[in-house]
Amino acid sequence: MRLLHTSDWHLGRAFHRVSMLGAQAEFIGHLLATVREREVDAVIVSGDVYDRAVPPLAAVELFDDALHRLAELGVPTVMISGNHDSARRLGVGAGLIDRAGVHLRTEPSAVATPVVLADAHGDVAFYGLPYLEPALVKDEFGVEKAGHEAVLTAAMNRVRADLATRPAGTRGVVLAHAFVTGGRASDSERDITVGGVAAVPAGIFDGADYVALGHLHGCQTLTERVRYSGSPLAYSFSEADHRKSMWLIDLAADGAVTAERLDCPVPRPLARIRGTLEELLADPDLDRHADAWVEATLTDAVRPPEPMARLTERFPHTLSLVFAPEHAPDDPRLSYARRLAGRSDQQIAQDFVAHVRGAGPDEREAAVLREAFDAVRADAAAREVAK
Predict the structure, then answer these.
(1) Domain residue ranges in the chain
(2) Structure confidence by residue, pLDDT tens digits, 196-251
(3) Mean pLDDT of successive 10-residue stretches along the chain, which has 387 residues
(4) pLDDT attached to residue 368
(5) Level-2 CATH architecture, domain 2-263
(6) According to DSSP H, which parts of the chain are helical?
(7) Rounded-to-integer distance, Cα 155 and Cα 303, Å
């Protein structure tokens, strides 16, 4: 069976205030053309269809158009919800849409109810594991303490139990939206650290012939059977070096996996340039970025006048301007934001405790801080789901 694995469409998202709807529509057209040209048997979309729980109307219309065009092709499609989606909204009408061959899986309670498709070699069971917010699903999965590893393990135990009841030779494909150990993050993924450590080991998915992951925006191979497709478009300058693509997966009769990486259309290249303003305006090597979306980091000791206006004369598509004067690391003029860059909420809080009383928190106090942050994030997630 030939599968096309994609994820993280983020319909409705802008790139530094530039609408991406046109580029997203172009990607949908590219996906449909690929399905036809490469004779794909099933499309799998591993979450974050939308960029937010209540997407703009234009994004909903684009998704609706995509569903109709996929249904017209007669090629089954399996989709799950991600942490950016409202599972309840995305799943509205799932039963009716199911009849058209587009299978939405957004309910945690249905993780062990697969979409079963068949090829010449027998059945392939597709199990959809939507994003599982630990604090909201721990009771459903009967785990004592909310955590990503605990709820995903419980979900996969249900999947393995169901797969064991299927006819011999049934192959299993799992769609999941999660942060799996070994994956490389970028700046454009929403944090999912509620419930303690966010990353889960790839071994959780043992027993599946192929695991189609979503959440991380870079295309990645964790094992031959466990892969991220990544987002089809770049949504932050941290993705400037990404090669945006989809996975074309051939699943053999014995469950063996053959993967081919297929490139996605690039609406405009990304470039990150760094130096003083005068260097950036004069360097001939930067001519190649004239048509790119540009993030410029200025290292001038003193902020120059009208930097954006001057940069856009040479780089018309400059979208982001960052000031990073080249001072010594301990220079007091370093901004508070720069000193906190790359540090988690937990680390910042622990540093504050150490600053105030001269000693950092002990193990018990660190656990209290962690529980407090988890409670705040869980409350925010619950409000998002309730929207």
Answers:
(1) 2-263, 270-326
(2) 457 899 999 999 999 999 999 999 999 999 999 999 999 999 999 999 999 999 99
(3) 98 96 98 97 97 95 95 95 92 87 95 97 97 93 90 97 97 96 77 58 96 96 97 96 97 97 97 97 96 97 94 97 76 58 79 76 84 75 60
(4) 86
(5) 4-Layer Sandwich (3.60)
(6) 21-37, 57-73, 87-90, 94-98, 134-141, 148-164, 277-282, 307-314, 336-340, 345-357, 363-386
(7) 53
Could you give the 3-state DSSP secondary structure of residue 78? strand
Greatest Cα pair distance, the chain, in angstroms, is 71
| pTM: predicted TM-score of the whole model, two decimal places | 0.83
CA gap 248, 5 in Å, rounded: 6
How many CB atoms lie under 10 A from the CB of residue 302?
A: 6
- Cβ-proximal residues to 264 (8 Å cutoff; 6+ apart), any chain: 27, 30, 232, 233, 244, 245, 246
Q: Give the Cβ contact number of residue 357 at 10 Å.
A: 9
- Is residue 196 within 8 A of residue 374, CB to CB? The reply is yes
DSSP character for 275? Answer: E
Token readout for 70 is 């996929």
- Cα distances (Å, whole numbers) of residue 168 to 117, 122, 172, 327: 15, 9, 11, 66
* 171 neighbors 122 (Cβ within 8 angstroms): yes
Give the per-residue pLDDT at 346: 83
Burial (CB count <10 Å: 0-12, 13-18, 19+), residue 10:
buried
Cα 282–Cα 288–Cα 290 angle in degrees, nearest 5? 75
In one-letter notation, the amino acid at residue 287 is D
Residue 275 is predicted with a pLDDT of: 96
Instruction: Give the model's pLDDT for residue 361.
Output: 86
The β-bridge relationship of strands 77-80 and 102-105 is parallel
The label of the residue with tokens 């220079």 reads 331
Residue-wise DSSP of 287-354? GGGTTSEEEEEE--SSPPSSHHHHHHHH-TTEEEEEE-----TT-TTS-HHHHHTT--HHHHHHHHHH
- Residue 47 and residue 80: Cα distance in Å, rounded? 5
Length of the chain measured in residues: 387
- Distance separating alpha carbons of residues 173 and 168, to the nearest angstrom: 15
Geometric angle at alpha carbon 292, from 287 and 297, rounded to 5°: 80
* End-to-end Cα, the chain, rounded Å: 38
Could you list the beta-strand ranges (E) of 224-283. 226-228, 245-251, 257-263, 270-275
